[in-house]
Amino acid sequence: MFSPPQIRELRKKQDVLEFLGQVLVQGENKVLEVPLHVIHLDQDDPRKCTARKLHSMGLVQIHDSSFASPRRGFLLDPQTDVVFGPEDRALAKMGGSLVALDCSWKQIDLSLLEIKGRTKLQSRKLPKLLPANSVSWGKIGRLSSAEALAASLSILGFEEQAMKVLEKFQFGEEFLNLNKEPLLAYSQAGSREEMEIIESQFFDV
Question: What pLDDT does 198 receive?
Fold first, then answer.
């Protein structure tokens, strides 16, 4: 059993090794793919858990505690006021991680409060999108972990990795079809302010 200081030290080493393994040196240092992580709280039906499926295919790392999550990157947080924007692409391209919280929507307030008190990840929310998963189909913004990670990757400029995440699910193609135009517009925005304008054009916000 590791003590909290030992866990923090192991996490630092994990972040460094992960970053070095992701970097491609060609003039400028840029990662091939964004490191994907999920803090999993086991609050939903495991048979419908998209994070577990992604983990079984080696596409994400799963943690049952925020103490083991990366130290540098973004936490997907639907409660924050800060939307993903082009300003975030630099950190993503330099190895910043993307971390989703897999929990019940009914318990998300308490879960986020606990997680944010333990991590220094930068909170970001996605602009409005339509989910295609069977649990929340058509409920604006209530994306599965897979949909949220893929949408974030697309906005940050990692379209191929986003496709790799979605192709593992029956709803993946439908999610892309439902959100084709807004996702393209979001990915081409020049600022957070422009993101919000685009969002209002596609959704009544």
Answer: 96
